[in-house]
Design goal:
The structure is a single chain. This protein has seven helices and six strands. The protein is of the alpha/beta class. It has a single domain (2-187), classed as HAD superfamily/HAD-like (Rossmann fold, 3-Layer(aba) Sandwich), CATH 3.40.50.1000. Strand 2, helix 2 and strand 3 form a beta-alpha-beta unit. It binds magnesium ion. Magnesium ion is lined by residues 33, 35-37, 116-118. GO terms for molecular function: phosphatidylglycerophosphatase activity.
């Protein structure tokens, strides 16, 4: 089912994310991917834009948690100035990592939004635990071959997504709810 890869929302960059839409949807916490979502792949430190944007989210009342497949070293350095909750080596799209992040924020998965640049890790993983999934365009176009190959598939999914009928999105929403139960049962 291709629908399980569809994001709920799609924006050009984190700066374009409409915070009011998230609020209207009852979102209280936000999971953030680092690489190519907040900064380019090889940028070690969070820049001023990222730090200010995260501060803005917190000021608005959102809880924030970094969820990255990168190493402890990479995540710790990136998070040095912000010192927000962070999970490294998350093995996204593993549902466990996303549920762990929701737990750390003290929120039910339905109240959490996932912001990321990759459909097969961030979006699919968030959908599996019934979170609101927010896709952003990757910052850096120069990517390793493996990721570039995935981008081709992503483009095909996004084309289908942009033309998707409402009924297909409803089917997906039902799938998201059921899948959360499965992911939860796996934790026990
Ligand atoms: Mg990424």
């Amino acid at each position: 089912m291709i629908e399980k890869y569809y994001p709920d929302l799609y924006f050009d960059s984190i700066r374009h994310i409409d915070i009011n839409i998230l609020k209207e949807k009852g979102i209280k916490g936000i999971i953030l991917d680092i690489d190519n979502t907040l900064v380019p792949m090889h940028t070690k430190d969070a820049d001023e834009n990222v730090i200010n944007w995260v501060a803005e989210l917190k000021k608005t009342g959102f809880k924030v948690c970094i969820l990255s497949n990168a190493s402890l070293k990479r995540v710790t350095r990136f998070n040095k100035e912000m010192s927000i909750t962070a999970i490294h080596r998350a093995y996204k799209p593993a549902g466990k990592a996303f549920l762990n992040a929701a737990d750390k924020m003290g929120l039910e998965p339905e109240k959490v939004a996932v912001v990321g640049d990759q459909i097969f890790t961030d979006i699919y993983g968030g959908n599996k635990v019934n979170m609101l999934t927010v896709l952003v365009k990757p910052i850096d176009k120069k990517e390793i071959l493996y990721v570039r190959l995935k981008r081709h598939l992503e483009k095909r999914i996004l084309r289908r997504f942009s033309n998707a009928h409402k009924s297909r999105l409803e089917i997906r929403n039902e799938w998201k709810k059921k899948r959360l139960q499965i992911e939860r049962s796996r934790l026990n």
